[in-house]
Each structure stands twice: as structure tokens, then as C-alpha cells.
Amino acid sequence: MITLTPTALTAVKRFVSTSADPVVGLRISVSGGGCAGLQYGMKLEAEQADDDVLMDFDGLTVLVDPFSAPMLDGTTIDFVDSLNGSGFKFENPQAQKSCACGQSFAA
Length: 107
Description:
By secondary structure, the chain is mainly beta. The chain has helices at 6-17, 69-72; strands at 2-4, 25-32, 38-45, 53-57, 60-64, 75-82, 85-91, 97-98, 104-106.
């Protein structure tokens, strides 16, 4: 379903290890918004929902809600660190178009 590159996995594990609050996993979601109509969301989650799709990446649990799961199918998430800034980059084959920032898309 989702692929995390080694760089993205390292970045997320770093965020989890420095979190002051308990973390059960990383939630990846899609919601309405952004300049292309849908936007990606990522946050450290303290609890999982009963209907979450769970994925394990070398001990890191990724949680995806049932609404977001089909729109994220085949997505690769990378972490880019450059002179222009750092952040997560989504490559989603479900996206018919995306905006210049790479954080929103249309399906």
C-alpha cells in the first residue's frame, strides 16, 4: 500500500524518539483542502482507531483511516533535506494532478 523510503523512516523514528507524549504510530491521511483539492496529513498518534489499516515499517506502526487508504495506495513517501528546506515528499500514482508544493493533489 504505502512505501516509506529509508530516509523517511529514519526521520519519522527520530520524531517519535523525541516526542514528549506516548506514540503508537504515525498517522498518514488524506483530507479535503490544499490548492489541488486534497491534501496529505501526517501526525504522531497516541491511539489507534478500531478501523485503522495498520502497517509495520521496521518497528514503526503506520496508521491509515479507511477513507484515506484507497487514495494512498501505491504512494511512496520520502524525506528531503536540502538548502531550500526539508520535509516529506509524496509520490502518489492515484494523483491525477498535484500542486507545485507537492502537498496537495486531485484524484
